[in-house]
Amino acid sequence: MSYYVIADVHGCYREFMQLLNRVEFNEKEDTLYVLGDIIDRGPGSEEMFEWIYKRYGKSVHMCMGNHEEMFCDFVKYKESCQLAEKIEKKYKMDTLDISWVLTSDLDGDIKEQLLFYYNFREQGKHLSYDKYGTIEQLVENGRDMKYLNKMRTFFEQLPYYFELSVNDTHFYLVHAFISEPVEECDHEKMLWSRAYPDGETGIPGKVIIFGHTPTTNYRYNGIGRVVVQKEEDSITVNIDCGCCWREPKSKLALLRLDDLKVFYSNINKNNFVAEVIS
Ligand SMILES: [Mn+2]
């Protein structure tokens, strides 16, 4: 019975499966924590979603990443576009008049959806979202709005972090970073924070496992392995080794919490390395 953690798979389904096979992940006994960003960039976003969706809550747990949040926003936007079009047509407007909407007799939910649509467009977000083409790819694969909404509903209920103990070591697992008091830690920080080694301090008595910032971006760490930072009583471990970037040093890392052993899939050489971090 082992506990595994992985982050930022970003559609690298092949490497993900290679690693699980390498450690002989057993769905009946082992547990896998996936720390967000399963979609975008790599070729297998849909396969990643399907694999996790089928096992979620049993052997597999997942927390939210910023790419899941962006996905949800964009699906919500796509849906609200249809509503905006309907309203424009019905009330003979060229473009949606938001001040009219807000003072109209329209239902509160509709107003809220139209306001979301309006703000999303005003901020130019519709231009940069789905820039990885994931939704486009899903639609090409024959997936409809119903399927996109199934993904959205699944992502929206994900927790933002996990807290667990393995062999008397206390872990926080999160996508980008977390700080005390964790109950009050901003969700934005948990999803978007850039935790460069010298930028964030850990939590006393805890080991924080996170991803989001590829370790290959760290100035002094050109080897693309996990980065362990120790400060007095706290330890932080970044396990995002930038697999999706497909650079010579890029790897996907799988960390086993029981013995802190890391397994790497080197996407170019198609082989595996393992090391124990301490
Ligand atoms: Mn991320």
Automatic annotation (TrEMBL):
Transmembrane segments: none
Coiled coil: none
GO MF term list: phosphatase activity
Ranges for domain Calcineurin-like phosphoesterase: 1-214
Gene3D superfamilies xrefs: 3.60.21.10
Entry protein name: Bis(5'-nucleosyl)-tetraphosphatase, symmetrical
Cellular component, GO annotation: cytoplasm
One Pfam assignment: Metallophos
